[in-house]
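Hi everyone,

Forwarding the result from last night's run.
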Amino acid sequence: MNRDDSVSVAFDLMGQELAAAIEDLNGAGAEAFRQSRYAEATELGEKGRALAEFHARVAALAAEWTERFAAQDMVETAPEQVDAVARQITSASKAPKTGLRVRFPDGHEIERKTAALTLAHALQRIGFEKVAPLGLVVNREPLVSRSPSQRYDSVPMGRVFVRTSSSTAAKKRQLEQIARQLGLELQVEITAPPAR
């Protein structure tokens, strides 16, 4: 793969990660506002504005890269090349900045060390056999599967694998969608990361 391709992929991945970070920040800010923590909500709102401005600058740089450099050597990149670069770039991923808490109608609460683990354990409690037929996907792969992903992160739960390569806000929306479709009254909230 030529260098131009990997730079373009890196810009694309950075844009996706920044969009997910903005979404997570928006979710945390909305939750703070709902819980009447107005000073925190205001601070998160200011950070969100700054992050959105940064995201716009990165998008402008990506456009400039494409126009001035990558467009000169327009070579189509094979999907497996994009995946290889994506894995290389994301392999040094950061610790989660937010978590999830899921409350079931019977009072049972699930909040694990990471949002990914919380999602996996909540789906297990709901029942993988109920969730799988809903056909939810993450990165074009089933949310719940009998086989691990070759491209993305999965949490093994016995003989089932839960795809977890999504933002915390996306995980929250997935759980809320599952609850609606199955008629469950779940309370799902984005939380601050657990103390280490």
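The mean pLDDT is 81.

Cheers,
N.
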